[in-house]
Amino acid sequence: MLLCVQRGLPHPSLCPSTSEATQAACVAQRKGVKGPSSLDPAVLSVFVPPFVMKEDSQLAGMNCMTLGKNRKRSFRKKRERPRVELGKGVPGGPRGPDPEDVSIPNGVDLLALPQLCFPGGLCVASEPREDCVHFLVLTDVCGNRTYGVVAQYYRPLHDEYCFYNGKTHWEASGLGGGAAGCFVPFAVCVVSRFPYYNALKDCLSCLLTHLKFCKDFEVDNHIKDFAAKLCLIPSPPPGPLHLIFNMKPLQIVFPSRADPESPLIDLDLHLPLLCFRPEKVLQILACLLTEQRVVFFSSSWALLTLVAECFMAYLHPLQWQHTFVPILSGQMLDFLMAPTSFLMGCHLDHFEEVSKEADGLILINIDNGNITYSNDEEVDVPDIPLLAAQTFIQRVQSLQLHHELDLAHLCTSTDVNEGRASRRAWQQQLNCQIQQMTLQLLVSIFREVKNHLNYEHRVFNSEEFLKTRALGDQQFYKQVLDTYMFHAFLKARLSRRMDAFAQMDLHTQSEEDRINGMLLSPRRPTIEKMASRKSSAPHAAHRRMVVSMPNLQDITVPELPPRNSSLRKIQTMECGSSRAVLDVPPKSTHTFKIPEIHFPLVAQCVQAFYADCVAQLSKAMGSLAPENSVLLARYFYLRGLVQLMQGHLLGALLDFQSLYKTDVRVFPADLVQTTVESLSAPERTQAERTPELRRLISEVMDRPVDTPKADDRVKNFELPKKHMQLDDFVKRVQESGIVKDAGVIHRLFEALTVGHQKQIDPETFKDFYNCWKEAEAEAQEVSLPLSVMEQLDKNECVYKLSRSVKTNRGVGKIAMTQKRLFLLTEGRPGYVEISTFRNIEDVRSTMATFLLLRIPTLKIKTASKKEVFEANLKTECDLWHLMVKEMWAGRKLADDHKDPQYVQQALTHILLMDAVVGTLQSPGAIYAASKLSYFDRMKNEMPMAVPKTTSETLKHKINPSAGETAPQAIDVLLYTPGHLDPAEKVEDAHPKLWCALNEGKVIVFDASSWTIHQHCFRVGTSRLNCMVMAEQSQVWVGSEDSVIYIINVHSMSCNKQLTDHRSSVTGLAVQDGVQATSTVYSCSADGTVLAWNASSLRVTGRFQVPGGGLSAIRLHGGRLWCCTGDSILVVNMNGSPCQELKIDGSFKETGTSFLGFQLMPEQEQLWAACAGYPDVYVWSLQDLAQPPQRIHLQDCSEINCMIRVKKQIWVGATGLSQGRLKGKIYVMDAERRTVEKELAAHADTVKTLCSAEDRYVLSGAGREEGKIAIWKVE
Prior knowledge:
By secondary structure, this protein is an alpha+beta fold. The chain contains 36 helices and 52 strands. It is flat and about 115 Å long. It starts with a strand and ends with a strand. One of its GO terms (molecular function) is guanyl-nucleotide exchange factor activity.
């Protein structure tokens, strides 16, 4: 959308009063006396596209050189709404709304626009003035913004160049020459849907070189020609491609957004850093984050908008939700009386007036960098959190803000466009650094918000979040948490949006945070954090005080330093690597030069322009390497737009369809739907005959028109006010953030309702919640001497601390970490180790006799010491007895199952026991707490150890469902080896494990440490069936929804989709041999097999396997082996059959189908299994007609999956183990055809297997367990 408006004084013959006022002003100017304050501007011309109509097609055969003239425009009266002159549609253009329906775009008020084009008033001058520009932001009632760039220029009021109908205009109006030597301002405003501030400023600068010296009756023609050219330039899609257009004498660059989520940046983001000190920038950001009433002032109208827009960019991805009017004219000052939050801008001349008349405003003077308050009343604006502010200031000071310093050693460029290009590249890099810097500031402020979110129920526990903030920062967070901006931010977090904030948070998180993402234990400070807390500034200590719930009024906390003084002192403080901006190099950009058009108002020339665009885009696409899909997608997008304008709808749809294979993020779904709906009957028929378009049309037309909007409300956690049954209690506990696992909450419910009706009253819940939070706060305040911390691992946390007790090893407090028990001795604090949980042999609660007293005593026997540890714990004894036994049992289960998750769950159990005892405070409290001794009871009820073979083969277990309310089944696993690649960071070059869960969820683990590398992201919404790696940079994922999704392993993004299958994709295979990974074969359930070029993503082969039911494919010997249910079919690469192995009468399982198969080339064997049966069949590849050898798997109910590893076949199954139905793995020797090992793998069925470089095998369990086991291959 583009609107071009000319404004100035109306024609004298149409408005005599204005003529007289102008003449009076001119005379006053010459005499040096004060004349009229200003004149009223009027709209002279309005130009709205389209500029070429269908009826102009009759002129297409005429010579372009003779068709440059257009109708002459006349001036309008001042308050008359001007008639809009529409352009004309292109012959054969796309069908859509009639051109007559086009009107002034929404949000553009032509009656108010003149005030904004001359915000300081329209004043004549006695001498020429410099041309100038300023910028507008126009907002409609729905909050949609349009952007304007205004260029003002002066023309002489009376000279030989000014003619109307062949006469000088003062002669025509009967006026004398009294106005000679006066110059009248005119303005041209371009309004666009996109904030192309620099680009449109350059365009208008080029236009003014023509307007200042043309005759008056030619002005409209020049402007209309200019507007017609601009409207032909498409807006580039998000990504690395910028457009260049020759406007003569300048090359104009129209930049694109970095990605679909980012704002379009076409301005210099360092302007506020030149106008304000870093401390002031932080103050302004604090005003915006707390949604104050902010007014910018400057003597430059241009700076008002540019600086305000820079601050909007600094807030990204947070968005200002309130009124945004960066320029107010003198007649609009009453807007500042609005009671709600706003950001507005005024000329510096109005500063005193606004300061005295309005209340509660924050006044920001751009010219001198000062911040004041209206009526000298200080507004309560809190500081940005101190640590974040310190880091930000250091990063600002490290920036190079002056381009001249970079140019000092270079020769002067003699080419103006070359110099501009160099400046633009420097600015782009600086903009990127500033965006990273401000984003890091926001992440450091709001990073820990995620720790207080419950995603399942969309709850934010603001009260607990505030308790974790430092005292000096609390006022800031209290105000921010109540803003609309923060509420929208919470919605995005709870929806797990992977926006710029989430990506920066992921890239900058510590290794400890990555590990904590795998664990479910309650939050406690680690020994490493305790040590850093002791050595940090005094302010850091106060951060912990605030979380203790008792009276804070009694604690004397020194005041934080004043706002400005402290922030300058941080230059001498050490903040480690935080001093510099995160080293994120700017993404490389490319440019495409739009062909020139000389007669944009001539249909034939416009069509020729479109043809040139298509030809040049096609040429550029042909020169691209196939793997440069990101740039290729932008060319497809642009060519599709141009073909739409040509009226080539089918060609446009084919280009848009290609975006699925190149970058689906820029797919214009609404535009495609509109195009499909406007197809004529013959075009629709032709489209239906094209497979690609048939799929595209069905997807577009099947989209639900009125999809009910998901409930994205954010709830604040509140304590319940009614009695709760089990289901409501589970929900409330999950919302509180205490526990997520539904099974644990069920046990908690049993504990809190022992001996009572099976419901929990609000008072009990409140007491339990307070007990939990008090224990959490006390643990945060634990401070250990350095001599003690040296004895502990850096990742250990103190979870429970007893009262001071007498023991046989001294007097002190017993401390419990996730690894050990130790005594913190009193007097001279010291460390006495009691035992690690792994070394405990026995735990007992007894009575020790002291004089006439019997004192409850805890006895702990360890393997490494003969002496039994005794502690007179008195009333705490029974609780500690339960807790130590539970941790002991959890440690044993963790060791037996090689699964650290058991320790984390045991920690949760013992802390819940503590809270239950504190809540009930009754004789039956210990019995109630024993309901949570889950692992101790499991150990006593099922004393059978993990089988020796299983224990020796099992290396480790990980849980992809950590943090979820219930386990999720593992559908597919894929291991990808690590390799150094120029496109990757070193830490990203580690091997990875890709795990597909339900509904298209994918989680990626770092296979070198088994920590989460990429938290859950979605690949469609259907079940995923298969995964394979291609080209070392792509992971192909076959889905039940018939789409192949391609994940980029460097960016961890899924922006490509292959939509050629018509049924669920069931198998993928990568070609081996010399051309490894160059061809990928995919199959679908309807029997279709496609061959793909892995680089270009083009289909190079297609055939149909008869019978359907195709479930898997393998490559061997230059042929494809296809599992089709009742047969295994061997076909050539062109699809012609060679051999077939069918389930026939020789099989006992005639009513079943093949589940899957594996080929053993060295042994010349084919191994297969049938669905629902416990037998494996082995054929000789030399003669498939011979009956197979049948191998029965003992204690097996059914086989689910199988893979080949070296000379072994690993079979995942469901079977009996220790009398229970579990997931089992059978390791079979291919040469002897016997079972070598029988592994008790999972508590649920084994759903999938994958190999890791033939050194390890990874197995995924069903939804009852939802874990991944890593097995050693021998």
